[in-house]
């Protein structure tokens, strides 16, 4: 009888380990998905050239267009609505919070070092660019893992 109880406990422990491993793997894939979405959004924002300044020979990013493009790309890549809430039947369960969307333009000396001590992020830009930091909360599959929250950082420079 004691062998049956030990066997059942062992099976329960193995199932717990399997759930932990599966949840860790899904969390890693979710982090990659979030990182790709933030990188694509920053890149889309960095390509929004200010055409009025370009006429005068000044290479600059249009802030309004850049913000709109960044949010649109983030929403499309993570399947979010206009308020950054997840759409029904999507992987994410909580709002994607845009913590920082900094547009670094020609009014700063280049190379420019952007530093954000709140999120422990430093990057050097050689030309106008965009820095984006987004907070995502991992929707746990099992309750084996503790809550996971990421501040995902992305940077892109204007290509000209």
TrEMBL record:
<protein>
    <submittedName>
        <fullName>Uncharacterized protein</fullName>
    </submittedName>
</protein>
